[in-house]
Amino acid sequence: MDITDNDSLPPASPDGRYWLPKTTRVQDDSVEERVLRPNWDRSWGDNKAGWVLDVIHIIRRDVREYTHTKIEELTQKELSDGLEGVWGGLQKRWALQNKTQQIKDEKAASREPTEVKHSVGDGTDRGCPGAPRITTCVHLPVAIHLH
What we know:
The chain is α+β, with helices and mostly antiparallel strands. The protein is 37% helix and 23% strand. The protein is built from two helices and six strands, in the order ββαββαββ. The protein has helices at 44-62, 76-110; strands at residues 19-26, 29-36, 65-66, 69-70, 114-120, 133-139. It has a two-stranded antiparallel sheet with strand order 1-2. Strand 1 and strand 2 (29-36) form a beta hairpin. The two termini are 54 Å apart.
């Protein structure tokens, strides 16, 4: 997925692809790679069908040992089940990451001035007896503390 421990999880590809091309520069050469972009909002089953076999192939090709177990000794089901466990944790992280961003967005929105229209008076100042006069106020989200 091309992330480190503290990075935010990347969003899914807008076109629904699970694998995106990535070009990496190595000295004077360009190396074409693929980067996994799971869809965190879809089910494990949808994601599993889209990328698990490819990831298992990469694991078998690149990883030799995991927790003192030789990768070649693990079945495809065992590897898939392990990936599902990792998926569950990352999906929870995605939900928390989005909730945190939603809270930040809501706080930012609450700090923005809002325009509110109020009815005041009876309208006689405009020559329309009985019609309310409309005035516009800008409410600033600022707390004032008096001691």
